[in-house]
Amino acid sequence: MNCDYLFEKKFSEHRSAKKADESYIRIMSSNVLHTHDGYSRRLANLQQIPYHERAEYLAKCYLTFLPDFLGLQEVSYEMEPILFDLLKEVYAPAAAPMGDHVNYPYHGTDHIQNHTPILYNKHKYELLDCRFHNFEAGGLWSYEWGLYRSKEDPTKKIVHMNLHYPSSSAKQFFGAAVEDVHEEILHLRRLYPQIAIVITGDYNCRYTTEHYQNMVRDLPMTSGMLVAEDGEPNENIIDHETVTTDVLDVKVHRSLWWRGFDKLTDHPPTFVDVVYKTKGE
Known about the structure:
Blueprint: H1 9-15, E1 25-31, H2 51-65, E2 69-73, H3 79-87, E3 91-93, E4 103-104, E5 109-110, E6 118-121, E7 125-134, E8 142-150, E9 157-164, H4 174-191, E10 196-202, H5 210-215, E11 221-223, H6 224-227, E12 239-244, E13 248-255, E14 270-276
Parallel strand pairs: 1-2, 9-10
Antiparallel strand pairs: 1-14, 2-6, 3-6, 4-5, 7-8, 8-9, 10-12, 11-12, 13-14
Helix pairs in contact: 2-3
């Protein structure tokens, strides 16, 4: 199946959203739709497109928009090696790929089933630290974060966290997962005062909900689409980026949802372009 038409006019239009100013940092969130058998099981919304074909189309999207940081959700064992291989010239994973056993004493768990991996532009940033944590609900639900330093300006550091909160099938775990993330953000702020933090993810809730508000309580953080100078605020979407507004200005927010993407995933990729308010850490 040829989906090249998806990446022509619309992609060129949206790519222009990134200004020439290279101080802008682009952070993207993308749920790639988990599947155990290589085909989408949500046939009411998606055509049966093999995961390797969907990986190719999604990789073309990422390499067109070239985010500095890319947070993925619902990455399956089948799709991960194919997708990562397509992106390896530009991106590196923050932590070990699924299947690799890496012990993180901070959490005391093996990094085995990570369905929320982060990729970063290895030509522009170096990874300083990272953590992965499975929520109590298990399965697809977890978070990961990486601390990065700009290769161009080593004084500038940023934390990118990526998460997938439990869905309705595990809603009894939602509150605990939110508290896990809230405590981790507080921990990061203690470790790195005034650090820039951006959280991508499938929140499985709107920014207006109590769960989302609890995550950012007492923190200078909000959804980037609410404060973007050039944005598309939409209270219905559950995939977006949360930013530290005391450190970052959000210049652009986009939700990449148009005819054709419903054949790749049931979640549109979203991104924000941010810039430091001050010199940075």
